[in-house]
Each structure stands twice: as structure tokens, then as C-alpha cells.
Design brief:
Layout: E1 3-8, E2 39-44, E3 50-54, H1 67-80, E4 88-90, H2 93-96, E5 110-112, H3 113-123, H4 126-137, H5 140-153, H6 176-186, H7 192-196, E6 200-204, E7 210-214, H8 219-222, E8 226-234, E9 238-247, E10 250-259, H9 262-279, E11 280-286, E12 295-297, E13 305-310, E14 314-319, E15 326-332, E16 344-352, E17 355-364, H10 373-385
Antiparallel strand pairs: 1-15, 2-3, 2-10, 4-5, 6-7, 8-9, 9-10, 11-14, 12-13, 13-17, 15-16, 16-17
Helix pairs in contact: 1-4, 1-6, 3-4, 4-5
């Protein structure tokens, strides 16, 4: 049986969870935050809550921003064990012959997957995209089918991919809201940030050539809080950008599609980020380093109960001038000794205004050894002396 302890938190705080957007009240800026773009979207990374939107479901070409999904499938392949970052990828004639932005891969040479991923993130290398797509799926066509399947799994119903590079090809499109969902999913991979903050670096080829690569996301220089993003441009798509920025405990994701200039896409992103950080905040509801007041009973243990804490911190996201009603349910599992520090012993549900916004594992903050026959005898003996 599970034991449920309902606890009402006395502070109106803010929480984030890594998952789909919750059904929560949303506030939007009264003024236009973007400059000369067709579509825009700003949301909280953890909760998915929308802060600002402009034509967010309009289907538009997104150029190289489609590489957000190419990269997602790369990290999916790594997580599944199909590939490793050290895996050597051999370059085909087709991959080496890709036009547009590239790192000039050589046919027949083999490159570590980590280097190809880096070149896609930093300088949007089309040749690297095709090389990894062929390695993962056998052909770019099969890889594109996986891209569309993954988009559908993420609930991106206004997205269709036709290639893995974003080079013009019909039909393909997405929308600002879908891009935000896909980019949010991508940056859950911590390895992404190993490359996204690189500004200028040499890409080393196996034949001793080097290609200098520069980050296409100028926000990492223009905006100190920005630590990742993906740009895109074609004449049809205009200037596009998916980017992320973090201050204190709050990470935001912004998308700009169809801007009329590179400057305006970056200015629009900065304007949205500034608005979000000025008007919203995340406050800690659960601190992974702080034990709960509640203790859990452990059967067959030398201890009657143990201290517990959340496996990770949890936040509630809200407007600065609002005070949401935050409650939590502590659900304790029936547990028996031995218990080791860090073992999962329950879960905590966090509710914002009555809506579930996060579920966090509850872990033991200390060991609980199994009681011996001697311990039981001592307990009985103590009972006799009372």
C-alpha cells in the first residue's frame, strides 16, 4: 500500500518540470516584443508555459533550424546505444558534395561523431548532417522519415521535414510553437551545451587539414545569458532563430521565424528574453539538498524511520506579481530494510493552482540497516522493562 501525505506549501512559488507543457494560466505581453518577423514564441523551459506568442502556429519554412531535429536524432542514437560520441563516421560522396554551409568533409574519410555534431551545432554544417543521417538510418530519406516520426511523438502537428539540412525543398515547414517544443527537447541533452557556447574553433580533418568554424548564433556574444541556439536562413524562410538563455534558476526558450534581417532576429530574441526575465521567475519548491520535514517508516529496520529528500530540485514558474496556490502530495512507498542512501522510497507531486505540474522521486537521505535477531530481542526486552 502507498501512503499519501498531503502538504500545503505556504509560499506562492514557481516550479519547473522537464516534460510537456502543463495546462496553466498564461500571461502575454501587451506590447509587440518582436521586430519585423512573421512568427515568434517565448516559453519557460521546464514547465513549457508560454509567455509570449505571435502567429505561433503559422506554417512557415524554417531553413537550418530544422537541424534541431537532426541533432535530436543524433543524441537519441547515442542514448539508445546505437552510436557513441567516439564512433567513426565515414563520409559518402553525397555527404561530401553538399552545398551551403559546410566544413568540407572529404569522401572516404572517417570522423568522430562528436566532431560532426559539434560542426552542426556551431556552424550548421550541411555535409555533417548528411553524413550522420546516413550513418543512423542508411540514407537521408530514411532519416527524414524518422525526423517526422519524432516530431509527431513530440506533438508537433504543424511540422513536416523534407531533408535533414533545411535547404529548400517542398513540402517542408514548421511553426514557432513546434520549434520551441523540439528545441526544448534537444537541450535536455547536457552534451549539447558542450558545443553550443563555442565561438571560434578549428575543425580538424583526418588528412591534417583544418577548417575554421564560427558560431552562427551571435547571441552567445550579444546576450550574456544566452548559452545555445540554432540559426537558419534561406531567401524563402528569411532569418530564423531558436535560442535559449538562463538566469538564476530560470531557463527560457525563444523562437523567431521569418525576420527580415539577421539583426532583427537577434533583437527580437533579446527583447523577448528581457521581457521574460523581468516579469517571471522560478522559485524553489523542493530543494534536492534539503531533507523534508516528513520522515518515512522503514519496516524490519534498526531505525524506526529515515529522513528523505527530493531526488532533484523542483520549481514553480509564475509571473512575478502573481501568487499561485502551491500544494504537494508526498506518496511514500511501503519500504523494508535494508535501505541505502539515495534509494527511491516514494514520490512527491507538486500542484500549481490545483494542476499537477511536477512529479519528483523521493529518496532516502540515510541508510537503514536490517534489524538482527539481537535487535528484535533488545526491543522485546525493553518492552518487558516498561
Amino acid at each position: 500500500m502507498k501512503k499519501i501525505i498531503a502538504t500545503i506549501l505556504t509560499l506562492g512559488l514557481s516550479a519547473g518540470f522537464a516534460g510537456a507543457a502543463a495546462s496553466v494560466n498564461t500571461a502575454f505581453a501587451d506590447t509587440q516584443l518582436t521586430s519585423a518577423c512573421k512568427s515568434a514564441y517565448l516559453c519557460d523551459f521546464n514547465s513549457g508555459e508560454c509567455i509570449y506568442k505571435q502567429n505561433e502556429t503559422e506554417r512557415l519554412p524554417i531553413a537550418s533550424v530544422c537541424k534541431v531535429m537532426t541533432l535530436t536524432l543524433c543524441f537519441d542514437a547515442i542514448q539508445s546505444g546505437k552510436l557513441s560520441l567516439e564512433e567513426k563516421i565515414t563520409v559518402s560522396d553525397r555527404a561530401a558534395g553538399m552545398g551551403g554551409s559546410q566544413v568540407f568533409l572529404q569522401t572516404g574519410l572517417s570522423y568522430p561523431l562528436s566532431e560532426l555534431i559539434k560542426s552542426i551545432i556551431v556552424c550548421s554544417a550541411n555535409d555533417s548532417c548528411v553524413a550522420v543521417s546516413e550513418s543512423i538510418s542508411g540514407s537521408e530519406e530514411s532519416f527524414v522519415a524518422l525526423m517526422n516520426k519524432r516530431a509527431e511523438e513530440l506533438g508537433c502537428n504543424d511540422t513536416l521535414f523534407a531533408n535533414c539540412t533545411g535547404l529548400p525543398k517542398e513540402p517542408q515547414y514548421s511553426c514557432a510553437k513546434d520549434v520551441a517544443v523540439m528545441f526544448t527537447n534537444l537541450i535536455k541533452n547536457e552534451e549539447y551545451f558542450k558545443y553550443s557556447k563555442i565561438w571560434l574553433e578549428d575543425f580538424n580533418h583526418p588528412d591534417d587539414r583544418t577548417t575554421s568554424i564560427t558560431n552562427t548564433n551571435k547571441l552567445i556574444r550579444k546576450y550574456s545569458a544566452c548559452d545555445g541556439g540554432k540559426t537558419g536562413f534561406t531567401n524563402q524562410a528569411g532569418f530564423c532563430l531558436a535560442s535559449t538563455a538562463v538566469k538564476d534558476s530560470m531557463r527560457l526558450v525563444s523562437v523567431v521565424l521569418g525576420a527580415d534581417s539577421s539583426d532583427n532576429r537577434f533583437k527580437s530574441a533579446i527583447s523577448m528574453f528581457d521581457y521574460g526575465f523581468a516579469n517571471y521567475k522560478n522559485r524553489v519548491v523542493l530543494d534536492k539538498d534539503v531533507n523534508l520535514n516528513d520522515k518515512l517508516t522503514v519496516e524490519c529496520s534498526r531505525k524506526n524511520s529515515i529522513c528523505v529528500r527530493p531526488a532533484r530540485s523542483s520549481y514553480v514558474f509564475s509571473a512575478i506579481d502573481s501568487t499561485p496556490d502551491i500544494t504537494r502530495n508526498v506518496i511514500a512507498y511501503d519500504i523494508k530494510a535494508p535501505i541505502k542512501k539515495g534509494d527511491v522510497v516514494g514520490k512527491i507531486e507538486v500542484y500549481k493552482d490545483g494542476i499537477l505540474c511536477d512529479t519528483v522521486d523521493l529518496v532516502a537521505a540515510e541508510d537503514a540497516d536490517r534489524a538482527t535477531y539481537g535487535d528484535f530481542f533488545k526491543q522485546v526486552a525493553r518492552g518487558w522493562t516498561l
